[in-house]
Design a protein that fits this description.
By secondary structure, the protein is α+β, with helices and mostly antiparallel strands. It has eight helices and ten strands.
Length: 231
Amino acid sequence: MLLLMKDIPVELQPIQVIRRLHLERLPEPEGTARDLIRRVLALAQPRAVYRAVPVDSRGEGWIRAGGVRLGSTVLARHTRGTDRVYPYVVTLGPGIEEAASASTDLLEQFCLHEVGNLVLTRAEEAARERVARAVGAGELYSLRPGALADWPLTGQGPLFRLLGGVEAEVGVRLTESFLMIPRKSVSGIWFASDEAFVSCRLCGQDRCPDRRARFDPEAAGEMRQPPRPNP
């Protein structure tokens, strides 16, 4: 059953916006940041859909959940200790994009999109925390299609098939190139794991503004090796 979350609480601190947009040199950076936060939150409609899906089977570089094959060595390894995963989509709706498109000011467009990205990240975190509490998991981790070469953007197709009804529930659809519309949307798999997982440790893109952990070449190399058998 596809579960819907509405009214996801989102809190954003001015310092996060100041750092993201490099507002330090403005006369009143905190006031500018607060104004941007208020405007973007007024435009955002944070909602999410997710399902609890049993893992049917797994092999080298894939799992099958709910009858759908998901090809990812990282996902296969980090879900070895669990029999259930939680595919999800979180969206802010089209409001931020529409406001940015209506503006003729390139700086304003940039600020709306960047603050929107921060709000989307926080909405995803809040939704994940709520689901973790609901299912009794101490922590749920996340892997998104396209975040790593191990699970490319084409993984959106199986993920949306596994969820089913995403567009009807929250208005998010996939394009032929597997991008989501509205763009202020994110999708992936939440899962419990025996070890902490942050996909940034396996990603060598050093200029990513959303990086949450240092790149670990040793861990990235290990993921390209055949998985060890379960103990």
